Protein backbone atom coordinates (compact mmCIF):
# COMPACT_ATOMS: atom_id res chain seq x y z
CA UNK A 1 0.00 0.00 0.00
CA UNK A 2 1.31 3.44 -0.92
CA UNK A 3 1.06 6.47 1.31
CA UNK A 4 1.69 10.17 0.79
CA UNK A 5 5.17 11.38 1.63
CA UNK A 6 5.91 14.48 3.68
CA UNK A 7 8.49 15.68 1.13
CA UNK A 8 7.41 16.15 -2.52
CA UNK A 9 9.17 13.66 -4.79
CA UNK A 10 9.57 11.00 -2.08
CA UNK A 11 7.82 7.71 -2.84
CA UNK A 12 6.50 5.65 0.09
CA UNK A 13 5.32 2.07 0.44
CA UNK A 14 4.16 0.16 3.51
CA UNK A 15 5.21 -3.47 3.79
CA UNK A 16 4.51 -6.28 6.23
CA UNK A 17 7.32 -8.79 6.69
CA UNK A 18 6.16 -12.31 5.84
CA UNK A 19 7.56 -15.72 6.72
CA UNK A 20 9.39 -16.15 3.39
CA UNK A 21 11.50 -13.07 4.17
CA UNK A 22 12.68 -14.00 7.65
CA UNK A 23 15.71 -15.81 9.04
CA UNK A 24 15.93 -18.34 11.88
CA UNK A 25 15.70 -15.47 14.37
CA UNK A 26 12.37 -14.25 12.91
CA UNK A 27 14.00 -11.12 11.50
CA UNK A 28 14.00 -9.92 7.92
CA UNK A 29 16.96 -11.30 5.98
CA UNK A 30 19.29 -8.88 4.24
CA UNK A 31 18.60 -10.53 0.88
CA UNK A 32 14.86 -9.99 1.35
CA UNK A 33 15.46 -6.38 2.39
CA UNK A 34 17.46 -5.59 -0.74
CA UNK A 35 14.88 -7.34 -2.93
CA UNK A 36 12.25 -5.10 -1.33
CA UNK A 37 14.33 -2.03 -2.21
CA UNK A 38 14.48 -3.24 -5.82
CA UNK A 39 10.70 -3.63 -5.89
CA UNK A 40 10.10 -0.16 -4.46
CA UNK A 41 12.59 1.32 -6.95
CA UNK A 42 10.68 -0.24 -9.85
CA UNK A 43 7.37 1.12 -8.55
CA UNK A 44 8.81 4.62 -8.20
CA UNK A 45 10.42 4.56 -11.65
CA UNK A 46 7.06 3.56 -13.12
CA UNK A 47 5.45 6.52 -11.34
CA UNK A 48 8.17 8.83 -12.72
CA UNK A 49 7.68 7.63 -16.30
CA UNK A 50 11.03 5.81 -16.27
CA UNK A 51 9.65 2.28 -16.01
CA UNK A 52 9.27 -0.70 -18.30
CA UNK A 53 7.84 1.14 -21.32
CA UNK A 54 10.98 3.26 -21.74
CA UNK A 55 13.54 0.75 -20.43
CA UNK A 56 12.92 -3.01 -20.62
CA UNK A 57 10.57 -2.80 -23.61
CA UNK A 58 13.28 -0.82 -25.45
CA UNK A 59 16.05 -3.25 -24.54
CA UNK A 60 17.42 -1.14 -21.66
CA UNK A 61 17.98 -2.54 -18.17
CA UNK A 62 18.10 -0.76 -14.82
CA UNK A 63 21.16 -2.22 -13.03
CA UNK A 64 22.30 -1.45 -9.48
CA UNK A 65 26.09 -1.26 -9.10
CA UNK A 66 26.71 -0.24 -5.47
CA UNK A 67 25.02 -0.01 -2.06
CA UNK A 68 25.79 1.68 1.24
CA UNK A 69 23.59 0.86 4.23
CA UNK A 70 23.33 1.97 7.85
CA UNK A 71 21.11 -0.16 10.09
CA UNK A 72 19.61 0.25 13.54
CA UNK A 73 17.79 -3.07 13.36
CA UNK A 74 15.94 -5.31 10.93
CA UNK A 75 12.15 -5.64 11.24
CA UNK A 76 10.62 -8.73 12.80
CA UNK A 77 8.19 -11.28 11.37
CA UNK A 78 4.78 -9.70 10.62
CA UNK A 79 6.05 -6.23 11.55
CA UNK A 80 4.83 -3.42 9.30
CA UNK A 81 7.38 -0.92 8.02
CA UNK A 82 7.46 2.10 5.73
CA UNK A 83 10.00 2.30 2.90
CA UNK A 84 10.76 5.74 1.48
CA UNK A 85 12.81 6.25 -1.67
CA UNK A 86 13.89 9.25 -3.71
CA UNK A 87 16.36 9.98 -6.54
CA UNK A 88 19.63 11.81 -6.12
CA UNK A 89 21.50 13.94 -8.65
CA UNK A 90 22.34 12.11 -11.87
CA UNK A 91 26.10 11.97 -12.47
CA UNK A 92 26.93 11.23 -16.11
CA UNK A 93 25.45 7.72 -16.54
CA UNK A 94 24.98 7.08 -12.81
CA UNK A 95 21.64 7.45 -11.05
CA UNK A 96 21.95 7.70 -7.24
CA UNK A 97 18.90 6.59 -5.25
CA UNK A 98 18.24 6.81 -1.52
CA UNK A 99 16.05 4.78 0.83
CA UNK A 100 14.85 5.01 4.40
CA UNK A 101 12.99 2.36 6.40
CA UNK A 102 11.01 3.22 9.53
CA UNK A 103 8.60 1.38 11.78
CA UNK A 104 4.98 2.50 11.89
CA UNK A 105 5.83 4.87 14.73
CA UNK A 106 8.38 6.71 12.58
CA UNK A 107 11.45 5.26 14.29
CA UNK A 108 14.28 4.83 11.81
CA UNK A 109 15.43 1.27 11.14
CA UNK A 110 17.71 1.66 8.11
CA UNK A 111 19.11 4.19 5.64
CA UNK A 112 20.58 3.19 2.28
CA UNK A 113 22.17 4.83 -0.73
CA UNK A 114 22.65 3.16 -4.10
CA UNK A 115 24.07 3.76 -7.55
CA UNK A 116 22.11 2.61 -10.60
CA UNK A 117 22.86 2.77 -14.31
CA UNK A 118 21.31 1.76 -17.64
CA UNK A 119 22.70 -1.18 -19.60
CA UNK A 120 21.87 -2.34 -23.12
CA UNK A 121 20.20 -5.75 -22.86
CA UNK A 122 22.10 -7.19 -25.85
CA UNK A 123 25.54 -5.55 -25.74
CA UNK A 124 25.64 -5.16 -21.91
CA UNK A 125 27.19 -1.73 -22.47
CA UNK A 126 26.22 1.34 -20.44
CA UNK A 127 23.51 3.47 -22.07
CA UNK A 128 24.00 7.18 -21.23
CA UNK A 129 20.96 9.38 -20.53
CA UNK A 130 21.62 11.34 -23.74
CA UNK A 131 21.02 8.12 -25.67
CA UNK A 132 18.18 6.67 -23.57
CA UNK A 133 16.36 9.97 -23.23
CA UNK A 134 15.62 9.16 -19.59
CA UNK A 135 15.93 12.02 -17.13
CA UNK A 136 15.09 11.92 -13.42
CA UNK A 137 15.05 15.06 -11.30
CA UNK A 138 16.96 15.19 -8.04
CA UNK A 139 15.08 15.28 -4.74
CA UNK A 140 16.78 16.51 -1.55
CA UNK A 141 15.33 15.53 1.83
CA UNK A 142 18.23 16.18 4.21
CA UNK A 143 18.09 12.50 5.22
CA UNK A 144 20.56 11.24 2.62
CA UNK A 145 23.38 8.98 3.77
CA UNK A 146 26.81 9.02 2.06
CA UNK A 147 27.01 7.46 -1.36
CA UNK A 148 28.51 3.95 -1.51
CA UNK A 149 32.25 3.44 -1.18
CA UNK A 150 34.36 0.63 -2.61
CA UNK A 151 34.54 -2.13 0.05
CA UNK A 152 37.99 -2.44 1.63
CA UNK A 153 39.26 -5.99 1.20
CA UNK A 154 40.38 -8.32 3.99
CA UNK A 155 42.75 -11.29 3.47
CA UNK A 156 40.64 -14.43 2.96
CA UNK A 157 40.31 -17.07 5.65
CA UNK A 158 38.25 -19.41 3.48
CA UNK A 159 37.73 -19.95 -0.24
CA UNK A 160 35.11 -22.08 -1.98
CA UNK A 161 33.84 -22.50 -5.53
CA UNK A 162 30.19 -21.57 -6.02
CA UNK A 163 28.25 -22.59 -9.13
CA UNK A 164 25.51 -20.06 -9.88
CA UNK A 165 22.17 -21.93 -9.76
CA UNK A 166 19.02 -21.31 -11.76
CA UNK A 167 17.26 -19.89 -8.68
CA UNK A 168 19.74 -16.97 -8.49
CA UNK A 169 19.05 -15.70 -12.03
CA UNK A 170 16.62 -12.79 -12.54
CA UNK A 171 14.94 -11.25 -15.60
CA UNK A 172 18.16 -9.37 -16.41
CA UNK A 173 19.66 -12.82 -17.14
CA UNK A 174 22.23 -12.55 -14.35
CA UNK A 175 22.60 -13.38 -10.67
CA UNK A 176 20.49 -10.93 -8.70
CA UNK A 177 22.58 -8.79 -6.35
CA UNK A 178 20.36 -9.69 -3.38
CA UNK A 179 21.64 -13.28 -3.59
CA UNK A 180 25.12 -12.09 -2.64
CA UNK A 181 23.79 -11.28 0.82
CA UNK A 182 22.68 -14.87 1.32
CA UNK A 183 26.22 -15.97 0.40
CA UNK A 184 27.63 -13.45 2.88
CA UNK A 185 25.38 -14.39 5.77
CA UNK A 186 26.00 -18.09 5.14
CA UNK A 187 29.71 -17.39 5.71
CA UNK A 188 29.69 -14.73 8.43
CA UNK A 189 29.51 -16.09 11.97
CA UNK A 190 27.79 -13.02 13.52
CA UNK A 191 24.77 -13.54 11.26
CA UNK A 192 24.57 -17.18 12.28
CA UNK A 193 24.72 -16.08 15.93
CA UNK A 194 21.84 -13.64 15.48
CA UNK A 195 23.87 -10.42 15.64
CA UNK A 196 22.49 -7.50 13.65
CA UNK A 197 24.39 -5.75 10.89
CA UNK A 198 25.36 -2.11 11.46
CA UNK A 199 26.86 -0.92 8.16
CA UNK A 200 27.29 -2.31 4.66
CA UNK A 201 29.29 -1.27 1.62
CA UNK A 202 28.77 -3.36 -1.49
CA UNK A 203 29.97 -3.23 -5.09
CA UNK A 204 28.63 -5.31 -7.99
CA UNK A 205 31.26 -4.90 -10.70
CA UNK A 206 30.45 -7.77 -13.06
CA UNK A 207 27.67 -10.07 -14.16
CA UNK A 208 27.41 -13.69 -13.08
CA UNK A 209 25.35 -16.04 -15.23
CA UNK A 210 23.78 -19.45 -14.94
CA UNK A 211 26.29 -22.21 -14.06
CA UNK A 212 29.22 -19.80 -13.74
CA UNK A 213 31.89 -21.07 -11.34
CA UNK A 214 32.82 -18.29 -8.92
CA UNK A 215 35.61 -18.30 -6.36
CA UNK A 216 34.08 -17.02 -3.11
CA UNK A 217 36.56 -15.70 -0.53
CA UNK A 218 35.65 -14.55 2.97
CA UNK A 219 37.53 -13.15 5.94
CA UNK A 220 37.22 -10.79 8.87
CA UNK A 221 39.16 -8.30 10.98
CA UNK A 222 37.62 -7.68 14.37
CA UNK A 223 33.98 -6.77 13.88
CA UNK A 224 34.20 -6.23 10.11
CA UNK A 225 33.55 -9.07 7.67
CA UNK A 226 34.31 -9.19 3.96
CA UNK A 227 33.29 -11.46 1.09
CA UNK A 228 34.09 -11.30 -2.62
CA UNK A 229 33.47 -13.34 -5.74
CA UNK A 230 35.93 -13.67 -8.60
CA UNK A 231 35.72 -15.21 -12.04
CA UNK A 232 37.83 -13.46 -14.69
CA UNK A 233 37.90 -10.46 -12.35
CA UNK A 234 36.30 -9.41 -9.08
CA UNK A 235 32.57 -9.66 -9.72
CA UNK A 236 31.26 -8.46 -6.37
CA UNK A 237 32.47 -7.47 -2.92
CA UNK A 238 30.62 -6.80 0.34
CA UNK A 239 31.97 -5.39 3.59
CA UNK A 240 29.75 -5.66 6.68
CA UNK A 241 30.21 -4.34 10.22
CA UNK A 242 28.03 -5.83 12.95
CA UNK A 243 26.54 -4.27 16.06
CA UNK A 244 28.37 -5.20 19.24
CA UNK A 245 26.54 -7.62 21.50
From TrEMBL:
GO molecular function: thiolester hydrolase activity
Residue stretches making up the Acyl-ACP thioesterase N-terminal hotdog domain: 10-127
GO biological process: fatty acid biosynthetic process
Location of the Acyl-ACP thioesterase-like C-terminal domain: 162-219
Superkingdom in the source lineage: Bacteria
Protein name (Swiss-Prot/TrEMBL): Acyl-ACP thioesterase
Organism: Baileyella intestinalis
Amino acid sequence: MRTEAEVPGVFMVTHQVDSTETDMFSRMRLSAFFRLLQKVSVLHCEALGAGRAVTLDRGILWVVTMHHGEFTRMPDYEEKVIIETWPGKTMYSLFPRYYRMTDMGGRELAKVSSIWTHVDMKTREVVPPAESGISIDQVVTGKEVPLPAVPVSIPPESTVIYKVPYSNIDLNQHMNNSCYYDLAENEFRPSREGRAVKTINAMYSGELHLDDDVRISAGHEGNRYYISGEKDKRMFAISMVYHQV
